[in-house]
Amino acid sequence: MEHDNQQPEKPNHATGGEQPQTTPANPIEQTERAETLDGDRPKIWVGSLSDYNNGVLHGEWMDAARDADEVHADIQRMLSASPTAAKYGDVAEEWGIFDHEGFGAYSVHEYDSIDTVSRIARGIEEHGLAFAAWADMCDNDHDRLDKFEEAYLGHYSSAEGWVEELMDDLGHTREVDDAVPESLRPYVRIDIEGLARDMQLGGDVYTAAADDGGIYLFDSHV
Asked: Per the count of CB atoms within 10 A, which of 23, 35, 114, 141 is most buried?
C-alpha cells in the first residue's frame, strides 16, 4: 500500500517556526504534561518519523529533565497514537527529536540518545545553563559530564575578572604591594590581561559565553 510521502516542515522555535500540532493519546494527559513544561525547563519535541514521512506532523513536547525511562515511556505513548499507523494498520516505531528548548549552549540533534539528552537536561536543571556549556565542551563524554562540579570555576564578567580575583585570593596582589615602595606602587602592577590571555591560550582554563552575559569558566585540568 502506498502512503502519501509529502513531508511537513519540522517545528523550529529557534527560528520562529509555527507551534507544532500535537495529536495527544489522551487529552487529559496532554493537558497535564503541558502544565509541567511551563518555564525554562529543558524540553524536547519528539515526533513520529513514519507520520512525518507521510505528511503528518505528529508528536509532542516532553520534559527532558527526567529519568530516561520516563521519557521513553512518553515516546512510546506518543507513537501508539500515530494517525498514520491507525490509518494504514502499520506500527509506528521510529522517532526523532525535531526541536528543543532550555538547553542553552548545548544543541540537541535529531537522533541523540534519550539517555544522553536526559542526563544533560537533569544537569541543567540542577546546575543551570553553565552545565549546558560544559556539556557542549564534553562532546557527550558522560565521565567528563560527571566532573562538572570539580571543573566549574564560576560565572564572571570576563577572564580578567577571574584572574584578578584569583590573584587577590592567593595573596599575590598584597605581596606585590608589600614588595614595592609606596611611591612606585602606581607604576607597578600584575599584568592581569596578559596572564588571563596566556592561561586561556595555554589550555589552563576553558571559557564559554554565558546566555545572560559574561562567561562561564572551567578548569581544563579536571
From this structure: 114
